[in-house]
Every structure is written in C-alpha cells, then in structure tokens.
C-alpha cells in the first residue's frame, strides 16, 4: 500500500516537472480586442479555433521537417493571410477611402536580418514580400507602389485590389464612417479628444503573427496586418516596424504584437522585451509583462506572443480576448480566444 502510494506520488511529481519543462516551438496570435464569448456564435468560434490550429500545424510541419524557423512563421502567417477571419491579407480591413492597405514584417533571430513592407494594396501575401525584402534586396523596408513593383519584379502573386474585398470588412467600414460622423459633431472644438475621440478601439485589432524556434535553436518572428479600419492619410502601425511590433534575437526571444499600434510604436514594445531580458536578465514572462504595462500606462491596449530561446512561451494581453495558440516540440496544439 505504502509502496503503491509512493509510486503514485513519484509519478505525479515527475509528470508535473515534465509539464513545467515543456518546450514550445511555436506561438501565434490572430489579434486582440473586445472578443467576448456572448458575441460569438458556436460556428464562428469553431471557425477561428480551427484556423488557428491549421496555422500552428502548418508551422509545426516545417519545424518537424527540419526547416528553419523563418519557414515556420511564414507558413503559419500564410494560413491566416489567406483566411477572411483575420485582419491580414484576404481579411484586411478597409481604409477611410475604401481601400485595403497592408503591412507585414519578418525577422531572423540568428542574423538579425529583417524585412518589411507597408501600405501595399495588390500583393496577395504581404508576408512573402516582407521576406523577399529581407533576402533579395539590400533594404529592410519598402512601401506602397515601390514595394508592389519589387514584388511583381521577383514573381510574387499580384492580385486586383478587389481580391481583398469581404462583406464583413466593408460593413465594418460603413459602421466606422457613421460613428466618425457622430464623433465629429460631439468632439467639435474639443482638442483634448483629438485621438481618442476619433478612434473606435475595436476598429484596430486583428493583426496576425507567429514566433518559432527551430531544431537548430534559431528564432524567427513574423507579423502581418490590414491595419486600422477607417484609417486615413497612409497611416502605418507597429506591425512592419522592427522593434515595435516585430522582433527576434536568438540571444533573447522572438516577439509579435497586436493592438493599438501607435502605443506599441511609442513604447518600442518588441525590442523593449528583448532588451530587458538581455540587460536586466529578466525572464521572458517578466519582461513581456513589464513592456505591456508600460504601453498600457500610456493609454494603449492589445497583446503579444513571445517565445524565448529555451522554448518558454508567454501570451499577455490587456483586452477582453486574443486569438492565440501554441504548439509543443511533440506536436501538442493548444488554442484559445477568451481571457
């Protein structure tokens, strides 16, 4: 009896220790915001969960095959870019002028090379263009028509802007325009509401991102977005800005952010996490929590996913929900939406 009890206790202790040392090889997100279960139909909830699993599986397949982490994050982001569920690629939101303008970035933690694009309207998969900027040009960032010309020149798939049209995103723009008209009246003459009075917090979430750790111990991070519904004047958020919304360094971690881009830019959130890990020797979880808190103190909201060089994961967010998921080295997938 005692021996049996001792065996059970030992087994449970071993299992707990094994779980604590679980190594993750990929973490992804599909945006953060006011995502409430009461507003989600069972069908739509399953669609989101299913697509997150598909993205994780696509990335995991690359890692399992011995491919570099860059291939893994690219594969995961491609799945989400091709889905109308997320604000990236096919599901990109509309600007004030009724266009879809997309941004994307990718970074190699081994070499610290990076590539990004911003304000493109005809590249089917922006993440492919971002990687091409990194690997096939001497630059880090390209924007607008120049980026589209580069993408066409190297053979990436160029589509008519109508490819990105979805009824749900178009209706979202019409709602935002109507709210904009009301706010213009309510906020007339109130300069203190210049930013918050003209931005609907729920119009800016949906960015997708992935971070992966490959078999060689190399990290990579990628982020892709359609930006903010009803955005004006060629606005660019944090996703394509290296160090703000996207960063990877083998010495520390890979990070991909989602949320109110202006605040992530001002806080340089992604690099801030890496810097605190490198210079203050904080853990991934501690650094991410501090970086997010500093951003929140400025008035921003959103979340991030991060993976360090030891396979530890963190996914903090200060919104009602964040589409997110992980996959371990043995292929165990876990996906979540709500807090």
From TrEMBL:
Residues annotated as binding substrate: 235-238, 258-261
InterPro entries with a match to the protein in the record: Ntn_hydrolases_N, Peptidase_T2
Site (Cleavage): 206-207
Database matches in CDD domains: Asparaginase_2
GO molecular-function term, one example from the UniProt record: hydrolase activity, acting on carbon-nitrogen (but not peptide) bonds, in linear amides
Top-level taxon of origin: Bacteria
Keywords in alphabetical order: Autocatalytic cleavage, Hydrolase, Protease, Signal
Signal peptide bounds: 1-18
GO biological process: proteolysis
Protein name, as recorded: Isoaspartyl peptidase
